[in-house]
Amino acid sequence: MKFIKTVLLILLFALFLGIGYYFIYPDVSKLKKENPKKTSFMEFREKEWKSKGKKIKIQKKWVSLSQVSPYLVKAVIIAEDDKFWAHHGFDIDAIQKAFEKDLEKGTFKFGGSTISQQLAKNLYLSPSKNPVRKLKEAILTWRIERNLSKRRILELYLNAVEWGEGIFGIEAASLHYYGKPALLLNPEESARLASILPNPRRYSVSGTSKYVEKRAKIIYDIMVKRGIVIPEYDDIMRSPGYDQNQGLSDKKEDATHY
Predict the structure, then answer these.
(1) Which fold has domain 74-161?
(2) Whether this model's pTM surpasses 0.85
(3) 161-181, pLDDT tens digit by residue?
(4) What is d(CA 20, CA 232) in angstroms, rounded to the nearest whole number?
(5) SS3 state at 125
(6) In this structure, are residues 66 and 182 in contact, taking their beta carbons and an 8 Å threshold?
């Protein structure tokens, strides 16, 4: 009995040290100026592909937030974390609702993650949903919010998030699905890209999934309702006489305002 207690104490101490490590390391303050070359999530996928004998290369291309369509930025916030600008890393209401839903289903998926939480997971952790990983994620999220601006968090997230098998970051996703840079994404394309983020390897932007169609429409309709998209103006922008070069210039200017 004494031996079992000793083993349990050792395990608890090891667990405490393992979690406590994330209060100090990694140095998230470096992210203020440094862009991550490869995330923990990317490394996880590479190991997963190797174990399955898949030869997949990661597609990624870093872009600054000013080089991303404002439509895409706002579509992602609507889809993933509508209170992003107001919270400090955690959306308590969303977490509570997700927990209640888990209780009803008898599962523990720990949903309700904010963009900041997802960034912490993508940069430093794995897709695992066990309680220990979630504790580590919470610590890292708290540190990220304390050290980085909201704008920088959003920029890092959009460049790190998975958008399909081997596709990471919005620039790679935009080039892959639409053959153009992220700056030129229109409202509909932005809504579709945002709609697959809950499970980008299951759902496809270019597919005919009813889930993607429905979710993209909801996101687009919210953008219209909030005045982010004005359909009549959007139609004019797409007309044959519209100057694409001038449009690009306008978008660059607009992209600085979030």
Answers:
(1) Penicillin binding protein transpeptidase fold (1.10.3810)
(2) no
(3) 999 999 999 999 999 999 999
(4) 54
(5) coil
(6) no
